[in-house]
Amino acid sequence: MFENLGDRLQNAINKMKGYGKITEENISEITREIRLALLEADVNYQVVKEFINNVKEKALGEEVAKSLKPGEVFVKIVKDELVALLGGDKEDLNLKGNPAILMLVGLQGSGKTTTIGKLGLLLRKKYHKKPLLVACDVYRPAAIDQLKQLGRELSIEVYTEGKGDPVEISKNAIEYARQNGFDYVLIDTAGRLHIDEPLMQELKNIENNIHPEEILLVIDSMTGQDAIHVIEGFHSELKLTGAILTKLDGDTRGGAALSVRHLTHVPIKFIGVSEKMDGLEEFYPDRMATRILGMGDLMSMIEKAESVIDQDEAMKAAKKMESGKFDLEDFLSTFKQIKKLGPLENIIKMIPGMSKALPKDVHIDPKEIAHIEAIILSMTPKERRNPEILKASRKQRIAKGSGRSVEEVNRLLKQFDQMKIMMKQMKSGKMKMPF
Amino acid sequence: MGLFDKFKNVFKTSNKPQVELYDRGLEKTRNDFVSKLSLLNKKYKKVSNEYFEELEEILIMADIGVETVMTFIDRLKKRVKHENIVDSEDLREIIVDEMFIIYVNNEVIVNKINYSETGPTVVLFVGVNGVGKTTTIGKIAHKLVNEGKKVLMIAGDTFRAGAVEQIEEWGNRTGARVIGAENKDPASVMYDGLEIAKNESYDVVLIDTAGRLQNKVNLMNELDKINKVIGKLIPGAPHETLLVIDATTGQNGISQAKSFKEITNITGIVLTKLDGTAKGGIVLAIKESVGIPVKFVGLGERESDLQVFDIEKYIYGLFKDFVEDETC
Known about the structure:
With about 425 residues, chain A is of the alpha/beta class. Chain A has an eight-stranded mixed beta sheet with strand order 3-2-4-1-5-6-7-8, with helices on both faces. Chain A has three domains: about 5-85, SRP54, nucleotide-binding domain (Four Helix Bundle (Hemerythrin (Met), subunit A), Up-down Bundle); about 100-295, Rossmann fold (3-Layer(aba) Sandwich), CATH 3.40.50.300; about 305-425, 434 Repressor (Amino-terminal Domain) (Orthogonal Bundle), CATH 1.10.260. In chain A, strand 5 (about 215-220), helix 10 (about 225-235) and strand 6 form a beta-alpha-beta unit. Chain A is built from 21 helices and eight strands. Chain B contains 13 helices and eight strands. With about 325 residues, chain B is α/β, with parallel strands linked by helices. Chain B has one domain (about 15-110, about 120-330): 3-Layer(aba) Sandwich (Rossmann fold), CATH 3.40.50. At the A-B interface, helix 2, helix 7 and helix 10 of A face helix 4, helix 8 and helix 11 of B.
């Protein structure tokens, strides 16, 4: 996500760092590049104009001219403007109602139904409370089936009445939630064009009847300049309380994301970052800005790690590392923990400085990881604890058992040895952690 | 005969309901776009730098693509200089004319489905998530069944919950047969479907695929495999591979077209949801940079609202009022 935009902005900024002094001339040159980068990322034309003017004005201000490192000050200006554009502080959901009612609206194909499943899962995980999903998309063929299937997959109850009146269905669903002790009611609505008057009226009717705490607009991050019409269209009819940007895991530059908040004051509350059901994240404007500028996002990485990694296991592994008794069995269990974090390249990019260090389009093949696992699993427990006993015939057996070659087994053992040496050095303080 | 007159003639001579569909479908699009252009011409009677800057804004806001717009403006500036154009009024026709040139680029554009002479014609639909692939297949099936063709739909989206049910409902509506099973490998579903199509001599096979973002290597590889399976069973197939793109898509559309073209031989684009306020200008950029023409457009929600794309009608639909405003 945002990689292309980030690259282009970084290029412009690096150029700036090369200049010893900020002059009107080189500012114009750099801002022109930033302007193109933003426009190509589908940032709204008006927003780009404003952004560029603000950056220019501040860059030419006193502060920068006096600074010893004008390049760094310039980066800070761009970053601050980006954070401001994205909405400043993080905005939380209003979940005060009992039950709290959340309604998702949007165009066709923006990802409402999938998002509602993800949101239900996220709320249940975060607050340990009970969500109810309500199927009010009575138009699209099989939309109700889709939600039911998601509910089954996630073990979240889905309320359906088939193809009835969405207003009645949502009213009944809330009643049902009250009686059965649900804490959140998440209402899926049919996709519609913001200019479709009868369908917009239907949404208004639902709003007036159930008074939801949150009306969230689901919007595809690949949307172009039309995004502003869509958001304004929905916002003028309904009182939107937030937006959810979907499909940010594509190679979109997500310019719509950069425009939504600024033009309409509707805050972005969540972003969809993978097809998996846990692929919905809360939106933090400052973290997003640092990610766009390739400065990494350690906070998100740590949170992600905390949510999936088994603390006890991790402690055990850490102790073993310290004592130098780390063996292949521990290696395997650590490996399994890391795998839970999702695609490795995504994780690596969150480490500050790494997005630049990695070659472009790096792709870590999940199969290679599977191969390593297969090799270790083909060893006996004794071999895993004492890899030194592995000689030619054992290696051949392992290679056969895992369907890999002896060379690969050797490579793995060599890498493991190197890792152990590194651990010893870290322990004795000869080497610092890479970050 | 000027290009305007040619466009007007297109509207006069071609069949009425089709023209009306374009007219109505593009109404929202046009109102915004053209009124801006007309305002621009009222604001600046003479061609100037400010004029070009605002024109650039209008075109970028239509998602035509930054690069395409930049070269377009450059070409326009050259023409203005070369032909000594001073009045902005005189630019109207040139703008429409140049727009047309971007798309057509001296090629003969064929937007008919390329039917196979022997055996079933296979049409594969690909695209990112949520662009309307399944709905498009349903609408095309409706059209083909009405033309008297024997149509088979293969539900190759075995990933998204409810996708198979969705296409089955289209089967019920149109009378076309549906082959599909959830949670199966898509390639194996296609194998089964194509066997049936061959043995029972269907005319057309429409294949749905799961939505995939173009930067997901594994999913794109799966598409490659699907292609091979199809080609093995029916040599020369798929005869058409249509990339479905949502009209609200911005610059990412170019990346979609490029990435999908690398994996499969995309023969055309289906531009959906053009009945909103979106202008779908990205198709001009795609045609210019990747060379893929649009074959169908979705101008509304009804089955019959899916139409064969006609660049003349599209551009005329966009510029109609701009052109006819000329006299007042």
